[in-house]
Write a structure and sequence with these properties.
mainly alpha; MetI-like fold; 2 domains; two-stranded antiparallel sheet; 2 strands; 78% helix
């Protein structure tokens, strides 16, 4: 009886220490998180206040107009064009980037470690380069006299000009952002695949399952974390895109490529400060709508459950 009581006391002591360490970890995480959150909320609140003013080159003394600034922004042609482009670029990258990233990660999963590292580095290389540099490279490639157009003309084909029409310009931008950001999806999917229990995969191989079946019946269903992270980041990277359309479009006012972040920049440098702040607030709200559900899911799954 004494031994059983002693063992029970030890178990309770260990449990108490484990709970204590967990609360210490949560406390250490909470302090910087609260500081960062307070600073972020202050910036967002200040930006929101500025968006309710009438402050521009034409009105040097700010005056309160409430949500009249937002009404003016929603009527602006540039805003309508920019939010349309940001939306289709983001949804397109999520759809295509997720699908291709998943397939490429599946192919890399079956490669030896050395080959996997080489190919993964190639897929991630575009993100290691400044997006302004990427935009400049693709701008040269899209030039009908220097890039693809020069190549097709020397092959006896019509000279290709990917930026000749609004439709071809949009498709060209899809190509560029797909090339620049898909490696991100490959990385997170591959990391999720590598965390799946190897014994399950080996058991499926012994039972005669093909690589395709293992991918879609074992790896993908057990990689929802990778799907959530990849989807959220692909959307946000595309939604905040600035340098690529700015460089390829030759400035912020190209109606075939203008994005919301370019609209913010355009309104600010033309000194329509309240309209710029209103557009910034809209971007912040959309980004929060994407990030907050993922953050809550991550806290519940990885922090609260330990």
């Amino acid at each position: 009886m004494k031994e059983s009581r002693g063992e029970g006391t030890k178990v309770k002591t260990k449990e108490g220490k484990g709970i204590g360490r967990r609360y210490i970890q949560l406390g250490l995480m909470a302090l910087p998180t609260l500081f960062f959150s307070a600073f972020l909320i202050y910036i967002v609140a200040w930006n929101l206040w500025l968006s309710t003013l009438n402050w521009s080159l034409l009105h040097s003394k700010p005056s309160f107009v409430g949500f009249g600034t937002y009404a003016a922004v929603f009527k602006d042609l540039f805003f309508k064009v920019s939010i349309y482009h940001s939306t289709i670029f983001s949804l397109g990258l999520v759809a295509i980037g997720d699908a291709v990233g998943l397939l490429l990660a599946g192919l890399l999963y079956y490669l030896p470690n050395t080959q996997r590292a080489v190919y993964l580095s190639i897929f991630l290389y575009p993100m290691a380069i400044s997006m302004a540099t990427n935009g400049l490279i693709w701008d040269w490639l899209f030039n009908p006299e220097l890039g693809f157009g020069w190549l097709t003309s020397h092959m006896g084909l019509p000279r290709l000009n990917p930026l000749a029409t609004a439709t071809s310009t949009t498709l060209s931008m899809f190509l560029v952002e797909f090339w620049a950001y898909t490696g991100l999806a490959v990385l997170f999917y591959l990391a999720s695949f590598m965390s799946v229990d190897k014994s399950i995969v080996e058991a499926a191989r012994i039972d005669g399952a093909s690589g395709f079946k293992i991918l879609f019946r074992i790896l993908v269903p057990n990689s929802m974390n990778g799907f959530i992270v990849a989807t959220a980041l692909l959307f946000l990277f595309s939604f905040r895109m600035f340098s690529l359309p700015f460089v390829i479009g030759g400035g912020p006012t190209n109606l075939d490529l203008m994005t919301l972040v370019e609209y913010v920049y355009y309104r600010f440098y033309t000194e329509f400060f309240s309209e710029s702040a209103a557009a910034s607030t809209i971007i912040t709200a959309i980004a929060a709508a994407v990030i907050i559900p993922y953050a809550v899911y991550g806290i519940r799954k990885w922090v609260m459950r330990g």
